[in-house]
Amino acid sequence: MNIVETPKTWDELNAALWRGSIDSYGNYRPRIAFRGMSENYGNLRTSIQRIGGPGKVHPVSELRWRERRVIETFSTYAREQLTVGFTDWDVILLGQHYRLPTRLLDWTSSPYVALFFATEDTSKFDCDGMVWCVSRVDTLDALPDLLKNHLASQSAKMFLLETLRTAFPSGLRQFDSDVSGEALIWFEPPSLSPRIVNQFALFSMMADVSSDHWDWLGKHPEFHWGVPVPASLKKEVRQRLQVMNVTERTIYQGLEGIARWLGSFYC
After folding, report:
1. Where in the sequence is the domain holding 239, given as residue range(s)?
2. Which residues make beta-bridge pairs with 36?
3. Is 75 contained in some domain?
4. 74: which of 4, 229, 237, 250 is 20 to 30 A away, CA to CA?
5. Residue pLDDT, tens place only, 244-254
6. Backbone angles phi, psi at 17, to 5 degrees
7. Is residue 82 part of a domain?
8. CA distance 196 to 198
9. Which among 103, 45, 43 is positioned nearest to 70, based on CA atoms?
10. Number of domains in the chain
């Protein structure tokens, strides 16, 4: 995986994160997907792949069975919040918001939101953090033709819920069956809650619950880079983000955000 030289100052860190965000017209645009982590875990496993702990590796058949059971069971209990005619796409989006184990991986279009997540856990201030950056617009070139055709039917550079519902009405099993080989797509969620809006959130997803983002990016080094957040800078980063109003108060919603912000500020 491509990792840039460890920044020694805020200015170096900032420059490394903004790399690739200017379009061909010289405008700053949300072309990069960022994922902030409190330390470099050496993987980009999804929440359903992490069940059982970071070192646990599940057989492919078990992951596929587990995903189906999770979706079916969650949809049974979440019926009040699902619209009539809901699909797998609706279930995993809603479930992801409530920390249901899914194949979706969280990202943000904001480098500063990513820095927030890389420095949120103060118990890991002695560990170097990491922000993974992916030029998501460029990854569209690697899509199979089937997915390119579906994406061409809309103006956005990411798949929307409506696009996936129309293209794969039977849900994830149809998606996995129709999309041959490994494929990574970017998924813009509807604004189910203020948290999605505040975090400038988006998701990535692979064709098959067992497919590995880490392996896919390793095969496409031109699309990504990692920016270390050294432990020596974490305190300064947190203080700068406070002044920018990128805090628990804005990242999370309502009283939960206020409580988290006060707990962080006074500890």
Report:
1. 10-44+104-266
2. 131
3. no
4. 250
5. 999 998 888 78
6. -75, -35
7. no
8. 6
9. 103
10. 1
Residue 194 in this model has a pLDDT that exceeds 70:
no
Domain annotation covers residue 52: no
Parallel/antiparallel/unpaired status of strands 159-160 and 184-188: parallel
Q: Please indicate, yes or no, if residue 239 is contained in any of the structural domains.
A: yes
Question: What span, in angstroms and rounded, lies between the C-alpha atoms of 104 and 54?
Answer: 17
Residues 178-196 have a mean pLDDT of: 78
Q: What is the pTM of this model?
A: 0.91
Tokens of 239: 């203080």
Amino acid type, 111: P
Would residue 128 be called left, alpha or beta, if left means φ above 0 and alpha means ψ between -120 and 50 degrees?
beta
